[in-house]
Amino acid sequence: MDTVTVNQFRDNLRAHVEKVIAEHEPLKVSRRNGEDFVVLSAEDWEREQETLYVLQNRSLMEQIARSSQTHALASGYRPAPEQLAAINRL
Length: 90
Hints:
Elements: E1 2-5, H1 6-11, H2 13-23, E2 27-30, E3 37-39, H3 42-56, H4 58-73, H5 81-89
Parallel strand pairs: 1-2
Antiparallel strand pairs: 2-3
C-alpha cells in the first residue's frame, strides 16, 4: 500500500483518487498527529465487506470447506447435460 502525506493527498486529490479506483489499491494518507486514514474505492470496500461477512459466517465457511473437499476428490454433484443446457440458456 502506497503512503502519502495529507498535504500530498490534498494537492493531488484527483490523481490519487483516480489511481485508487483504477488500480484497486488502497492509499494510506499520513497525518502529522499520527491519525492516518485509508482511501479505498467504494467497489473495493463493498468487496472487502462481503469477504468479511463470508469469513465470519460459520455455515458458509463449512459449505466452502465441504465443496473444496468434494472438488479435490472429484466426488461432487455433476449436473446432467440437459441441466447444463438449461443453465447455459439463462
